[in-house]
Amino acid sequence: MRANNNIIHESENQVVEWKESWQDKYLEWICGYANAQGGTLYIGIDDSGSVLGLESKTVKKLLEDIPNKITAAFGITCDVNLKINNKKKYIQIDVKKSRLPLNLHGRYFYRTGSVKKEITGFELTEFIIKSTGTSYDELTSDIPREKLTFESFRKRYLKATRMPLEFDDDLVSFKFIKEDGQMTNARILFADQWNIHHSRIFVQGRMA
């Protein structure tokens, strides 16, 4: 098996990264590629593009370990292949773009330009919404439910329907609470304390 010699002349870029040896922290790079447009990680090549090569025993172990680590971390499969350049062995890991956001131990990474970055906060919210097509109010809220009250909503509901609010059952149907009991952002918007946690949002068609 022979690799294309051009690899040593190709610069690292948004979809190509070289590493001299494997470290488990490179799962972050794989996560970043999958969350972006995909990419290829090479093991056994230095930053200048020179193929350093890997020992045969190391190659054999990595060809078994890397696919297992990727599947265990993300539940996906990547093509992990042996390559040879001038009798020097290295490994090529091809990562495809994921249809859903991937995280590594709860942390989300994204490949942009030639760097890997962790995405958090509002940027992460925007990324998840864009990737999944999920609306903001369907996302799980991190505000404890015991910190919120809904007296105003109860009164408005009773006035509009002339029926008392069956709290837990009705809130699931309103998508204020998920089936597993987690609270969504939609519920925050109707809480008495909504102005503490969110800027007010007016959505056409909701109860005013």
UniProtKB/TrEMBL annotation:
Gene3D superfamilies assigned to the protein according to its UniProt record, in alphabetical order: Schlafen, AAA domain (3.30.950.30)
Any one Pfam family match given in the protein's UniProt record, by short name: SLFN_AlbA_2
Domain of life of the source: Bacteria
Alphabetized InterPro entries for the sequence: Schlafen_AlbA_2_dom, Schlafen_AlbA_2_dom_sf
Bilayer-crossing regions: none
Domain Schlafen AlbA-2, residue spans: 12-119
Protein name: Divergent AAA domain protein
Organism: Catonella morbi ATCC 51271
